[in-house]
Structures are given as C-alpha cells and as structure tokens.
Amino acid sequence: MTTSEPTPAVHATPAAPATPAAAGGADDGERLRRWRMVLGADSAQSTGCTLTGRDAAMDGALTALYEGGSRPGGRGGGGRSAGLGASAPSVARWLGDIRTYFPSSVVQVMQRDAIDRLGLSALLLEPEMLEAVEADVHLVGTLLSLNKAMPETTKETARAVVRKVVDELEKRLTTRTRATLTGALDRSAKVSRPRHHDIDWDRTIRANLKNYLTLPGEDGAGTVVPERLIGYGRAAQSVKKDVILCIDQSGSMAASVVYASVFGAVLASMRSLRTRLVVFDTAVVDLTDQLDDPVDVLFGTQLGGGTDINRALAYCQSQITRPADTVVVLISDLYEGGIRNEMLKRVAAMKSSGVQFVTLLALSDEGAPSYDRDHAAALSALGAPAFACTPDLFPEVMAAAIEKRPLPIPDKETHQ
User: Fold this and answer.
1) In DSSP terms, which residues pair with 41 in a beta bridge?
2) Is the overall model pTM greater than 0.90, yes or no?
3) Chain segment 81-108, per-residue pLDDT in tens
4) What one-character DSSP code corresponds to residue 20?
C-alpha cells in the first residue's frame, strides 16, 4: 500500500528544441546542453554536446542514481557508468555532491528515489550517512521504520535528524494552529449575556429582526431593538473540548504519523483542550503521556505491520467521557484488517452520542492518497466523510469540528 502515486524522476524540464540540427546560436547551444543533461550519455553523439566542469559533475550525480551503474561515486562527462555502490562513505559523498549542485527541494526528491530505487535503507543506520542527508518528513518516516533495527551508535544521530525536522514543523504550524483553534473555542462557548466586546452582532441582529422599529420623520429608516443578545464567551482556563487523535501507523502512513505527532504536541499545549494521542497497527498504543515531546512520540511508534481500525476505535471509545464535547480524528487509509461492520457500528455509535468524528485519509503534502473506497463510502453514508488533508488545512478542519459546522473538504468530487 502507498499513500500516493509514485512521482517519476525528472532531471530537468527544458523547452523542447525543434531538432538538434537547428543548433546554431547561443540559445540552441543551451537547449542542446539541457537535452544532453536530460537524456544522458547515449545522447552525446546526437546532440553533439560534451559536458565539462560542473555540468559533468551534475551528470555524474544523476547517473549514479538513475542509470545504476556498478562503480561507486563515479564521475566523468562521457561514460554513464557510475553508481552509488554499497558503502556508506560513497553514498555520503554522493549526498554531499547533490546538495552542492541542486536546490533543497530537488535534493529531497533524489534522496527519496535513492532509498526506493537502490535499497539504501540499511545505510541510514550508519551515523556518517545520516550526517550527510537533507532532513525532511520523508526521511523521518524512513528512519522511524528502521527504528527497531537501529544500533545504539546511530540512535543519537537519528534523533538529532528527527529533532531538526520536528522543530522546523513546529515553527511553521504552531502559531496558526493555536490562533485558529483559540478562536474556534471562543466561538463555541456561546453565552446569553455576553460582555459588549463578546457580542456576536450578526447573530444578534438576525435574532431580533422582529423587533425592527421605524423611526419617525426618517423616511422609512429604522432600528433593531436587541431584546436578546447573542455572543460567545472568552475561553477560560478550564478544558472546553476533548480531542482524540487516532493514528494508523502502518508503513504507508509515515508522513501522516510525523505531522500528526507534531500537531498532537501543539494541541496538547493548549489549556482549553484535553488531547489524547493513540497509534495503532494490529495493536493499540496510547502515547498521550509523551505528547510534551513529539520526538519521543515518533520514536514510540512502530511503522509497518497490519491494521485493526476497529480495535483502535474501541479503545478511543472507551476514553470518551464527554461525547458532546469530544472530537475524534481518525487518520488512516482505511485498509481495515479487523472487523469492518464493528468498526462502522462504533463510528455510528460515537456520532449518535454527540461526538464530532473526522476521518483523514492522509495528513501530508504527498498528493492524492491510496485508500479503501468502500470503507470511505460507508463512512460517508454515516455522515462522516473521509478526505485527505494537508498540514496547512488541518487547523481549519479542527476549528470546524470544534464549532460543529461543516468540514472544509478540499475537493468533494475526489472523496467519498
């Protein structure tokens, strides 16, 4: 199973020339150089282009990954016979090279391709390899999948890599999440005698339109007499809502686990929310007591294995004490290995008791996820639509759930 369709590797995207024979000026020479970089050494004769210097080095880095020769760390502008080899030093040198020649976004794609295409996961267990990589969410997911096999000499370096990514995500996501949810919590605590600055004027005016009075001598002008004020109270220090994040830790959900762990830590830092974080495969683990540090949460997960959503939801259901004030967020591709009908019954029971139930097929930037469409359709029939969510949209989804208003589904046509 995968959470998204694989992206084909693309070395460059040059504007296509009419024909190589048309080369004559500087522009034509640049086109041919680009085509030579894209097509590789086999195109050297047809393009009449020989690479030198930095171009040759870039070509060698691409060759090592995408044409899989046998010699580690090879270079050269002519023969594309290089490869990454099977040793950490040669791979570390290659990682250093691509960070020199390509922008960070491209480096991350090439690293991912190297791990997938050349089976380099085992080399990530060596400290010198980890020190050379460009850290990102996908790399963290790979490290977590290797966690149980990781030697002690590597764990400290691995935690440093994960810590760097988590810190960057927290800086990016925390402020907006806290601001959005604080506003939602304020609005969800409506009061009948609000203070002046807490009055919801739009709802107050609509509720008092029957009290419209025409003013004498004002050519039909009038006013609304607000007999009943409607507003929302400011969130107090007490807990207003309970949130349960129920995260599928099967191998296909790696990026979602990373983002969900960071969001879990952010939510747990808000006094008006009581947050619980549960991860599952065929077993269920409650990691709530580690929410103060998302790195601990991540290393408490065990990516891979089967999936038993029903068992996970049974545990979450047992933790609900205030249904009307509880939001349950299931993050899963819905490939259920447990009892399907029982799973659906639990969702229906939670919703009927007043729980706001949200199903996210993915919480990541990876694009359209792979998921069980039958289960997604069944949840939709229960009034719990399942959809993929980007990290930037997640605060809005949570705000809507807290306020008990329709969820901001990004593209209803592609989700059940």
Assistant:
1) none
2) no
3) 345 555 555 676 777 778 788 887 788 7
4) G
